[in-house]
Amino acid sequence: MQQRSVKEKEPRLRSSTVALRLNNLGVEFPTALGNPVVAIRDLSLEIDHGTILGLVGESGAGKTTLARSLLNLPPVPGRITSGECIFDGTDLRKLSEGEQRKRRGRDLSIIVPNPRSELNPMITVGDQIATRAEIHLKIDRAEAQARALEMLKKVQIPDPVRRMKAYPHELSGGMAQRVVIAMALVCSPQFVISDDASSGLDVTVQAQILRLMRELAMEQQSAMLFITRDIGIAAHFCDQVAVMYAGEIVEIGTRENIFLRPRHPYTIMLMAAFSHNAGLRAQWRRPDDQAAPRNSQGACSYASRCPLAQEACRSDHPHLRELALGHQARCHFPVERL
Amino acid sequence: MTNLLEVLNLHKKFPITGSSSFVQAINDISFSIGTGETLGLVGESGSGKTTVGGCILGLIDDYEGSVRFSGQQLLSDRESRILRGKIQMVFQEPGESLDPRFRIGLSIEEPLLALGVEVNERRSRMLDAAELVGLPKELLELYPAELSAGQQQRVGIARAMITRPKLIVLDEPTSALDPNARADIIELLMQIQKDIGTSYLFISHDLSTVRFISDRVAIMYLGMIVEQGDTASVFAQPRHPYSIGLLSAVLLPHPNFKFDTSVSLAGEIPSPINLPKGCFLESRCPFAIERCRTEMPPPSDLGGGHIVHCFRHQELAKRDDTSDIFSDFQLESERLLSFPKSKLDHST
Predict the structure, then answer these.
(1) Does residue B341 belong to any structural domain of this protein?
(2) Which residues pair with A27 in a beta bridge?
């Protein structure tokens, strides 16, 4: 059996302007049977200023748990068991609860998929945006209102002066999502998480919102973690892409490396699912394919589903290895292309 | 191909309580579906796609226009209820459309109760339907919550197939599923159609799926079909600005495949109450002219069943944005993702 006493050292994409660095994060969910489910396993990543990192994977891979844990708010009853989240030179988890609350919403912001659940139905959207600015930026009410209006203009809500006084139920889904984005960005956060924020929108509206988020992130030089199930969005909208499987990053790299030179069998299987080519899909799946077993100690988490699995895959958990500049995969036998 | 379903000049208004105005959900729609054919019905939310499905199934009545099935006029009375086993529906949210307290087997055979089929035949047809959709026998004794979303949607399809329908209305059957489960369901539907010849009305906003499953496609906007025709021809030569806008918003999972067009639609779909007199897209359309504001564009037949409602479709046809990126993308993914030849012996 493998004993890993030394912490896994993982090569990273180099850069000098790291906005957020996550080191060896582990998150567990307790179960009634005793053995906790490992939702995030020893996960490290970095996101640069002005960069959008796309995070793709199927449901259950741990994407949302990761997003919440970055804010030190793992989904109940999850528990962060290890790791640090270095943001602006400090580990968020080492700060007092009060300090953390000051950061969340101001420096770190999250946009969730269901905009209406995020908005208070009893308060006008203008007031909700202004309140966040007022509290976090310590500005007076009038200034906060002006800032809220400016944000509504930036997210291209038609007739923003009138919409300031609108209640959430008076807005369409697309507009409510714009309001939530305006609220997330009103304090010019340095780090923005979008958790499947465009999934409920129609395609033409989605295209507008994606363009908008990208422009605003660039303008403010924010770093963005963009979680999505739609790898098409990642292919066109993100600078870097991380593929997540069973609580781990199995492949990460520049958008071109991931989409034009995929190396991990899981990444390829996922891409084949979008190819509308039954033959291609069948090649990358085993006939006995089923959901991933968690807690696969001492083996590759994907070994039971991988058509290329060898003996080593069942006995040795692979590390994330650098395959090329800006391209890493967690695989003993990364797929070779001629 | 004989037409199994013919919808002619369908209109549907919903009155708004406490007001004299109406929601004009469907505004003069005509289309047909042949035997063994799939029509993709595409549009954004609020465009009336689901209402069309409801009218066909007789779940929505008091519509104007005619719905003919196998040459017979469908009415919202007993007679059409007997027919209803011949038209079935599969819903968007598989988990929510199954009774949580019914075992899977019972959920599948329930439609036969309404048709008065006796118990032994119900049981044997249930087993056949489950086999058809690839549901293992062990699952039939479980409850919906114990199944994955993909398996739940197989139950939805088995339940629809059990009455041996000629037509299935599939209302966003894959939008709640993960990519792999979605591809599995699409492959299953295509296999069933190949084996049994069932016709589908495939309602979806996922254009790349529609591109590959449909023989013909109809694009809806505010209760109108603005363009319809053979899938290949509509996707390669879209003539309506709305179709072009929709296609340009499709994001295929490859950074180099982008629908090459300058058309982008501003704003959102307006309210279907008090619709404008002219073209419904006028407020969002980059090509709108004065005439579009005052007059509804009539249908223009471009041949081969390709019909478009736009005054300027001929000018749009000249635009140089007509390559079929979907088939190019398929070729490229085949090249990029095919299994390494040296490894073809699946090691176990």
Answers:
(1) no
(2) A40, A80
Give the minimum alpha-carbon distance from A210 to chain B in angstroms, rounded to a whole number: 10
Give me the number of domains chain A comprises.
1
With a cut of 50, say whether residue A1 has pLDDT above it: no
Residues B169 and B261 placed together within one structural domain of the fold: no
The answer as to whether A29 is a domain residue is no
B254 with B286, same domain: the answer is: yes
Amino acid A23: pLDDT: 94
Q: Respond yes or no on whether the N-terminal peptide bond of residue B15 is cis (omega within 30° of 0).
A: no
**Residue A72 included in any domain:** no
pTM summary value: 0.88
Least Cα distance to A237 among A221, A224, A252 occurs for A224
The predicted pLDDT at position B77 comes to: 58
Q: Show the domain range for B291.
A: 230-334
| Residues B33, B149 within the same domain | yes
Q: How crowded is residue B216: how many other Cβ atoms within 10 Å of its Cβ? A: 22
A262:B337 CB<8 A: yes
Residue A7 has pLDDT above 70, yes or no: no
Give yes or no: residues B175 and B40 share one domain. Answer: yes
Considering the domain architecture, whether residues B172 and B299 belong to the same structural domain is answered as no
Which strand ranges, in their side-by-side order, compose the sheet holding B199-204?
B87-90, B167-171, B199-204, B38-42, B216-221, B224-230, B307-308, B300-301
Residues of A within 8 A of B246 (CB-CB) are: 203-204
| Contact: B340, A268; criterion CB under 8 Å | no
B250 and B207 assigned to the same domain: no
B60-114 pLDDT, tens digit each: 888 899 889 888 887 665 555 556 688 999 998 888 899 999 999 999 999 999 8
**Domain final position from B214, B242, B265:** B214
Contacts of B346 in chain A (CB under 8 A): 286, 307
- Give mean pLDDT, residues B131-145: 95
Please check the confidence at residue B262 and state whether its pLDDT lies above 80: no
Residue A222: inside a domain: no
For residue B25, the SS3 value is strand
Residue B108 CA to residue A149 CA, distance in Å, equals 53
Q: What pLDDT score does A289 carry? A: 65
Tens digits of residue pLDDT in A140-168: 999 999 999 999 988 888 889 999 999 99
Q: How far is residue B339's CA from residue B251's CA, in Å, rounded to a whole number?
A: 24
In a domain, A305, yes or no: yes
Per-residue pLDDT, B259: 76
Contacts of B183 in chain A (CB under 8 A): 273-274, 276, 278, 281
User: Binning pLDDT at 50, 70 and 90, where does residue B347 land?
Assistant: very low
Total domains in the fold of chain B:
2
